[in-house]
Amino acid sequence: MFEYLYGTVEYKKMDYIAIDINGVGYRVYFPLREYEKIEVGNKYKFYIYNHIKEDTYKLIGFLEEGDRKIFELLLKINGIGSSLALAVLSNFSYNKIIEIISKNDYTTLRQVPKLGEKRHKLLS
User: Fold this and answer.
1) What CA dihedral angle connects 102, 108, 112 and 116, to 10 degrees?
2) What is the CATH number of the domain that holds 65?
3) Residues with Cβ < 8 Å from 77, sequence gap 6 or more?
4) Tens of pLDDT along 43-81?
5) Please, what is the average pLDDT of the chain?
6) Angle at 2 between CA 26 and CA 49, to 5 degrees
7) Nearest to 69 by CA among 49, 88, 87
8) Which InterPro entries does this UniProt record tie to the protein (predicted)?
């Protein structure tokens, strides 16, 4: 499994980038709020979460190790998968997510697309 990837961003889409490492391009998904921070042609280190299911293998990358940790915590919540966890991280910073959860502020959490009322109850 990958701990991190370091290489040059060859191109970026709204939800993933292609990072070149010694001539091999890796597709790495990332939270949308990091889109503006990533520039094509620059080198970056992405902390990787290896998302493996029976029919899917995705590399999910984070510019900060703390974001990967909160992503992993979100995945432990029943009913939250990788797409929904990425949506939460796309809308809120690491510190804001910790604040929301510690204050049980699920009204703020409702701002996340795809996170319905039913899912808020899973978090409490």
Assistant:
1) 90
2) 2.40.50.140
3) 122, 123
4) 999 999 999 988 889 999 999 999 999 999 888 877 788
5) 87
6) 85
7) 49
8) DNA_helicase_Holl-junc_RuvA_I, NA-bd_OB-fold, RuvA, RuvA_2-like
Predicted local confidence at residue 116, as pLDDT? 57
Q: Model-level pTM?
A: 0.82
Handedness of CA 67, 73, 78, 81 (dihedral sign): positive
Which of 22, 34, 12 minimizes the C-alpha distance to 91? 34
> Alpha helix locations (H) across 38-111?
65-75, 82-91, 94-102, 106-109
Of 89, 82, 78, 91, whose CA–CA distance to 60 is shortest?
Answer: 82
What range defines the domain where residue 108 resides?
4-113
- The number of distinct structural domains making up the chain is 1
* pLDDT value of position 76: 83
Query: What Å distances lie between residue 46 and 39, 49, 105, CA to CA?
Result: 13, 9, 30
Average pLDDT (26-50) is 95
Q: 17: exposed, middle or buried (C-beta count within 10 Å: 0-12, 13-18, 19+)?
A: buried
